[in-house]
Specification:
Helix content of chain A is about 20%, strand content about 25%. By secondary structure, chain A is α/β, with parallel strands linked by helices. By secondary structure, chain B is α+β, with helices and mostly antiparallel strands. Classes of the chains: A alpha/beta, B alpha+beta.
Chain lengths: ~425, ~1050
């Protein structure tokens, strides 16, 4: 073995600028983001309509439905799923006055859920939406059907915007790996310290090659959120007037541990650090990158790349896009889809990274653009903090090939995902100390 | 909002969705072979010419009853009932005989004729035998004269003459007449005599009725489809049972109007135009909405589910709307506050615009609707309201209904729908309404949708609380017209029942002259509570229908009362007389069965029957009817006692009410001693039972059992054993167990309420601040919650002192029930409420107490307080609002040192002073950046930093603290704003709602402000919304002071 091992180099471009913002303005309301989303998606949907139905049916604005004499037509709008189990601030406020303990739910679908389609001006209740159980609020879609009067629209068929075109993937001569982890949960390091150690040693090359993977061919590590914590005990949100500044700061130790951990790794590899919903970053999506004052040691290395959540980049010409998992978990709660990987696939079809934002997933009140719309199709779409590792290749009608990856929580699964940029193969490696 | 482009050509006109709103046409009716059957809804009388062939006076103008209703086929009916003559009864001297009738009548007529026309006003005088309702006077009947007069007005004229003119007739010289039933209005009189109950089905048999039309001698005068004449003696009223229990499909029209007001001024009909009128029509009992439309001034974009009628001129719109009402011909008009706002406004506006035909909204073709101001004395206090005549249409204002049936903190539609249905409603402030109207057809559409929702909500309320069904049943049970349930007091119901029963039993009801009395009787008893906190289950034994049962059991009635001086007059033995604990004497049922006991027995029996039927009934519509009926029966039975005790009432009899309460007291005492005698160690029980409290009709027993089952078992057993000691139908029932139980004082207690052993039903709080209305919501919330935890109390106090509470919770509402003059000392909130009432008559005054201001000035708009950080008088809230209820409630739990624990603990030390953005001092202060860690003023060179040099090592901690706070705010921000977006049922339109009753409103605002601060700090749903926004701003700045987090991101690009 030579004395020095040279790590393979890869070109890198951070494409996340749309997820960061210079100033925050909370004087905006959320209706603007729906309007922006609808107008941006309208363009894509018109293409999809053309692909699916040609010119057979007229496209009609919802508010015109009542005026025009069209029988069957296509309407474009945003779906709204009215769910009686959906948690509501109003209900919470009303219940806070009562003493009855309310059942705590983690899944909010019910047979009584009702769908509406809505555009800038009008809302119609939907009838006959066959795949309703798979859908959630915020999806923009086109529906074929007829106005039944009385504010109801009967659906015959539907289409989504579907996969956007994909840039060509360069042909790589050599293997080139990107490692993805999430949910390190350094706050509870006692459960996983040995595994974390193993993982870090492996990346540093101390463990040699595993599963035929040359460690020096690993070009990047992406940490997809929740490095500090994966769950928070007393973070119950209440909606009274008071916001108390919580003076206890139990996560400081974990932040320091993270700093040390990164300090080691950054000496040997490029690290992209994404925040997750439990990390000390802001709450709404997109989350801002970790603040430099939190990582005083590792910040000195240029290899530490603090990024936003969601995060998009191009490594050696391969486009990667992903989140720390919040949009996927949220969709799972409000639909009857059971597999996160399926949600990821649907997001591509819906052409939207986080449709439930802002309805049930907090997001910044954007007013001039919706950064969660996919303008082009990535080669890799990942999400962090899932229960299990899962991966799949999906193909779009336009020849798009997309590798979907669900990155499991490291603290419980001790698993990292290794992605080969050359052939998009993805395998898990388990760092189980036992 | 971007104006939509007109894409393409408008080829076709709007889809014609207009449905026919006319009633179904009448199938041919032949009065000689067909019966006419309809359900009666409205009743009134008018004076008109006699109809040939009808009984009663044949000459001159006579009173004619007019009934409105609809048939089963939904055809509207106007029925003129002829021949009913008003009358009164007077007592007569014994010497007065049949031969005196004619001359006596002559004399009377002569006197009356002086000021009237040439007709005989007194039609007939008959001698009838009967008894006065009041007092037992033996079984002898005495002589009464029934004086029938031509018009109702003559009743009081006759009374006046007989009272004043002692020399009218020689045999009655110096005789003091007593008058009976002279104060009964003609409608009630008519209903009683014809045995028609309210909302009853009426049948006119073939051959007895005559159709009116355009050709007949008597022309049709109404807009009803069927208009007929009938004699009062021919109509048949069906009892509301079996097939006649049904309710016809009444047309209910709910209306809401919007006016374009000027900034800050409540709309005035002489200036501000009506811009939209939304109408929702529903048939009673139907699921679907029959018609939904909105009349708009200026164009309005299409709405999916409603029809739009647009007009360029306001007068055209109003005329078209009036025509719509006439065509629709609704039976019931509803809405929210329509009596005092919508209808008067429309009428005044139409008058102002000079619209001649507009006011003809009733069913009588030539009778315009006119607004009259009425003052009414009810048990809720004196109220002024406007009365408008819509002949044949019932005005069923949900505002009045809710006020009558529910005790709420505020009666705005928003709060009502929130508290009753748990639905929030978007509230668009009237200043925005004008802006929306002046926008384009899309903003007007927005307004129309809002207006439609406001019209639909009262209907939803009506369905939800089933008030119409219940009221119809109440009308049927008590026999009064539906309308009098809303605009008359409680007493008419009892009077009507008394009259009905008195008639058949041969009693006449004295016309009681109102005389202020100082007599007092002792109220219900309360056993001295043994206050404290009980960890054992406390069983509650209740007397079911206590007061009615007492009246029945002891035969207490007007007719059985013996005055003390007459106790020995009728040869009654001691066994035949009951002497009540209050020292009054009544004869026993064996001598004479009292009328009130009879009425009550019937009511209770009918209730039992309704309940049995209810159990077996499967059809939900009939279930609602039956449930409404049993409720109505229960309320009626209980109101009889109140009637006898109402000193300003129609016929008070304190001997009865006093006896009833005296019996009640005795029974409660007896129950206590029985329980304590029976359930003691000597009788083989494991411990001595203890009655810890007793109130009116219930006793709380501590059997000292350790578990629910035993307590319930003992409770049931005790109820059975003790019931046997009382006269039937008095019955003691075991109802519930409280466990644990907090007894604070008389009528103040709380506990978990169990009827089953496995799970408690609810938390029951009585008389504790949770339900009192003159406290602010904060008090309610705190008291409710602190029953669980003291730490919560401390936290809240701490929050209050640190200005960290929801400002909406600090609003104190008080309603003015008296006139201005009645408040001799002008309290601050009175003065304010008056001012506010001018602006928004529907609301109770909302007050907030601020620091160091005189109270009147302190009452500024809540919103202003929030936006300008005006300091709130925290000590006021702590000392005047929170402290007393808290001490009361926690006293029994925490013991003597409660005050020091709650009000002076560690948690009260930390206070936040808010710096007002307004006020004199604010102008002279200059803001200096301070260290976020230790708050020292930063040196000039450090100003860009977040912390001072000494706090630098703690920077991470401070940052994490701040970011966590910011996170919470952001989370609230998104939850609140999305909630409002959902509530307004549109994702793509801006939230305009400024509902002050919505708890979110304030929170939203606050969160927004806090976010601004936190951003610079985060916001609640409006106030909260706003506050979060502001705080986010703050939080944001603070975070920013740590430096831009994305610092130098670019530098790391392409790193290798």
């Amino acid at each position: 073995m030579p004395d020095t091992v040279v790590r393979t180099l890869a070109t890198y471009k951070n494409l996340s600028s749309r997820f960061s913002r210079k100033t925050d303005d909370y004087n905006n309301q959320y209706y603007k983001i729906y309007n922006v989303r609808l107008s941006q998606m309208n363009v894509y949907l018109l293409e999809a309509i053309k692909r699916k139905w040609g010119d057979r049916f007229p496209v009609c604005k919802l508010y015109k439905l009542a005026e025009e004499n069209e029988d069957i037509c296509v309407v474009i709008g945003t779906l709204f799923k009215d769910q009686k189990l959906k948690p509501s601030v109003l209900k919470q406020l009303a219940e806070s006055a009562q003493l009855m303990p309310q059942p705590i739910l983690n899944h909010f679908t019910d047979d009584s859920d009702v769908f509406y389609i809505e555009d800038e001006l009008q809302r119609f209740q939907l009838e006959g939406l066959a795949n309703g159980k798979q859908l959630v609020t915020g999806i923009t879609c086109a529906l074929l059907g007829r106005d039944k009067g009385n504010g109801k629209f009967s659906v015959i068929d539907y289409t989504y915007a579907d996969y956007r075109p994909q840039i060509e993937r360069p042909i790589l001569q050599n293997d080139m790996y990107v490692v993805l982890v999430s949910g390190l949960d350094l706050f509870h390091l006692e459960k996983s310290s040995l595994s974390v150690r193993l993982f870090s040693n492996w990346l540093s090359g101390y463990l040699g090659d595993i599963n035929g993977i040359n460690t020096e061919d690993i070009v990047r590590l992406i940490i997809a959120g929740n490095s500090v914590k994966t769950s928070s005990e007393n973070e119950e949100v209440n909606f009274t007037m008071n916001v108390n500044i919580n003076l206890s700061n139990d996560s400081i130790e974990a932040v320091r541990t993270l700093d040390s951990f990164l300090f080691e790794l950054c000496q040997v590899i490029n690290v992209d650090l994404m925040p997750g919903c439990k990390d000390p970053s802001n709450f709404v999506l997109p989350q801002k990158c970790f603040h430099h004052c939190l990582l005083p040691k590792s910040i000195l290395y240029k290899t530490l790349n603090r990024v936003t959540n969601p995060y998009e980049c191009e490594i050696n010409g391969v486009r990667m896009l992903g989140t720390s998992g919040e949009p996927i978990s949220d969709i799972l709660k409000y639909s009857d889809i059971t597999e996160p990987i399926e949600v990821l696939e649907n997001c591509l079809k819906w052409n939207h990274l986080a449709p439930t934002a802002p309805d049930t997933l907090s997001c910044y009140p954007y007013y001039d653009s919706d950064p969660f719309i996919l303008d082009d199709c990535p080669h890799i779409l990942f999400c962090g903090n899932q229960e299990k590792f899962h991966t799949k290749i999906v193909q779009g009608a336009g020849g798009q090939n997309v590798r979907l990856i669900c990155v499991p929580e490291f603290s419980t699964s001790f698993t990292a995902c290794i992605l080969n940029l050359k052939n998009l193969d993805c395998v898990p490696i388990v760092f189980n100390a036992d | 909002m971007a104006k939509r482009k007109d894409d393409g050509i408008h080829i076709s006109p709007k889809k014609l969705k207009t449905r026919d709103i006319h009633r179904t046409p009448v199938t041919r009716l032949d009065s000689t072979v067909d019966s006419l059957i309809f359900q009666q809804l409205e009743l009134e009388h008018y004076v008109g010419k006699t109809y040939p062939g009808m009984p009663g006076a044949q000459l001159g103008l006579v009173p004619i009853m007019r009934m409105f209703g609809i048939t089963e086929n939904e055809n509207s009916v106007c029925c003129h009932v002829h021949g009913f003559t008003p009358y009164l009864y007077v007592s007569l001297p014994d010497s007065f005989g049949e031969e005196d009738l004619s001359p006596f009548r002559e004399k009377l007529n002569n006197v009356l004729r002086r000021d009237k026309d040439n007709f005989d006003s007194v039609l007939q005088i008959q001698i009838v035998q009967g008894k006065s309702l009041c007092d037992y006077n033996g079984d002898e009947t005495s002589k009464f004269a029934k004086i029938s007069v031509i018009q109702h007005g003559h009743v009081s004229a006759v009374k006046r003459i007989l009272k004043s003119d002692r020399n009218l007739y020689h045999k009655t010289k110096d005789f003091i007449f007593e008058f009976f039933e002279s104060n009964v209005d003609i409608e009630t009189r008519f209903l009683v005599d014809t045995r028609i109950m309210g909302c009853a089905w009426i049948e006119l048999p073939p051959g007895t009725w005559f159709m009116r039309g355009d050709q007949t001698t008597f022309r049709a005068v109404s807009r009803c489809q069927i208009e007929v004449d009938v004699s009062f003696s021919d109509l048949i009223a069906h009892k509301p049972e079996e097939q006649w229990a049904k309710v016809a499909p009444f047309r209910i029209l709910s209306v809401d109007i919007e006016c374009a007001g000027r900034k800050g001024i409540f709309p005035e009909p002489n200036i501000d135009p009506v811009i939209q009128i939304a109408n929702i029509v529903k048939l009673h009992g139907a699921e679907e909405i029959f018609e939904r439309n909105v009349f708009t001034l200026n164009t309005c974009a299409a709405i999916g589910h409603a029809e739009i009628h647009s007009y360029q001129k306001e007068s055209d719109m109003l005329d078209a709307w009036a025509e719509f009402v006439r065509q629709l011909d609704p039976d019931i008009l509803t809405g929210y506050n329509i009596n005092n706002f919508d209808f008067p406004y429309l009428l005044d506006r139409a008058k102002h615009l000079g619209l001649k035909r507009f006011a003809y909204l009733g069913r009588i073709t030539e009778s315009p609707s006119i607004i009259k101001e009425v003052t009414l004395q009810t048990k809720f206090g004196k109220r002024k309201f406007k009365n408008i005549n819509f002949e044949g249409r019932v005005q069923y204002d949900m505002h009045v209904v809710i006020k009558r049936d529910f005790k709420l903190r505020s009666y705005t539609l928003n709060n009502v729908s929130n508290e009753i249905m748990g639905e929030q409603k978007e509230d668009v402030h009237y200043s925005i309404i004008t802006d929306l109207q002046n926008g384009d057809d899309q903003t007007r559409r927005r307004l129309a949708i809002y207006c439609l929702k406001d019209a639909e909500l009262p209907l939803k309320l009506l369905d939800h609380v089933k008030s119409l069904t219940n009221d119809i049943e109440m009308a049927r049970v008590t026999g009064v017209p539906l309308t009098s349930l809303l605009n008359k007091g409680e007493q008419v119901k009892v009077v009507a029942q008394l009259l009905r029963h008195a008639r058949s039993a041969g009693y006449f009801i004295p016309a009681h002259e109102y005389a202020p009395s100082t007599d007092q009787y002792e109220g219900a008893t309360v056993l001295e509570p043994k206050t404290g906190y009980y960890k054992d289950p406390i069983a509650t034994l209740d007397f079911s229908s206590l007061y009615p049962s007492i009246m029945i059991a002891h035969n207490l009635c007007y007719t059985t009362l013996i005055r003390p001086n007459k106790v020995n007059s009728f040869n009654l033995t001691k066994d035949q007389i009951t002497t009540t604990p209050s020292g009054n004497h009544f004869v026993k049922a064996s001598v004479r069965k009292g009328l009130l006991p009879q009425i009550l027995e019937q009511l209770l029996a009918a209730r039992k029957k309704a309940k049995t039927l209810l159990k077996d009934e499967k059809d939900p519509v009939y279930q609602a009817v039956l449930n409404g009926r049993q409720l109505a029966l229960k309320i009626s039975a209980n109101s009889v006692y109140g009637f006898t005790g109402a000193q300003v009432g129609k016929l008070p009899c304190l001997e009865i009410s006093g006896s009833v309460t005296a019996y009640g007291r005795e029974m409660i005492e007896l129950t206590r001693s029985l329980v304590e005698q029976e359930y003691c160690i000597e009788k083989g029980h494991s411990s001595n039972a203890e009655v810890i409290y007793g109130d009116t009709d219930s006793v709380m027993v501590n059997f000292k059992a350790k578990d629910l089952e035993t307590s319930m078992k003992l409770g049931k057993e005790a109820a059975e054993v003790i019931s046997k000691k009382f006269i039937s139908p008095i019955k003691l029932e075991f109802e519930k167990v409280y466990w644990p139980y907090l007894l604070i004082n008389k009528k103040r207690y709380a506990g978990l309420y169990y009827t089953k052993t496995d799970k408690y039903d609810k938390m029951d709080c009585k008389g504790i601040e949770t339900v009192r209305r003159d406290n602010c919501t904060l008090v309610v919330d705190v008291i409710n919650t602190c029953l669980r935890t003291v730490s919560y109390v401390k936290q809240t106090i701490s929050d209050l002192l640190q200005n960290n509470v929801d400002i909406s919770q600090l609003v104190i509402t008080k309603e003015l029930t008296k006139n201005d003059e009645d408040y001799s000392a002008k309290q601050a909130h009175v003065e304010l409420a008056k001012r506010l009432a001018k602006r928004d008559p529907a609301s109770r005054g909302s007050n907030i107490f601020l620091e160091n201001n005189d109270p009147i000035k302190s009452i500024i708009k809540t919103f202003y307080v929030l936006e300008n950080n005006v300091p709130i008088d925290c000590s006021y809230y702590l000392e005047n609002q929170l402290s007393k209820p808290l001490l009361r409630i926690l006293g029994p739990v925490l013991g003597d040192n409660v005050e020091s624990i709650i009000l002076r603990g560690e948690h009260t030390r930390h206070r936040t002073k808010v710096t007002s953005k307004v006020g004199a001092l604010a102008a002279f202060t200059q803001k200096k950046e301070t260290c976020l860690g230790c708050r020292t003023v930063l040196k000039a060179e450090e100003e860009k930093e977040a912390v001072c040099q000494y706090c630098k090592p703690k920077e991470i901690d401070l940052y994490i603290q701040q970011v966590n706070h910011h996170k919470q705010l952001e989370c609230r921000f998104s939850a609140l704003f999305t909630e409002c977006q959902r509530c307004q049922q549109s994702l793509h339109e801006e939230i305009l709602c400024t509902s002050r009753d919505c708890p979110i409103f304030y929170i939203r605002k606050k969160v927004q402000m806090e976010l601004e601060t936190s951003k610079t700090k985060l916001c609640p749903i409006f106030y909260i919304r706003k506050k979060v926004q502001m705080e986010l701003e703050t939080s944001k700045t603070k975070l920013n002071r740590f430096g831009d987090s994305a610092l130098m991101d670019e530098d790391f690009e392409d790193c290798d």
